[in-house]
Amino acid sequence: QHLEDALPGFLESRKLIKANNDSPGVLHFVGDKFVFYRFANRYRMALQFRGVTLEGFGKETEQGYSALTRIFLVWSVFERYTEMAGVHPPYKPFFLHVPKSELGALARVIDRNDPERRLFDFLRRQVRDEIHKKSLDRFRGGDDWAVVYYASALRHIYVHGHLTAAAQGCTGAQVGMICNEVSRSLLHWIGKDFARRLKIAKGAPGRR
Question: pTM of the entire structure?
Answer without folding.
Answer: 0.94
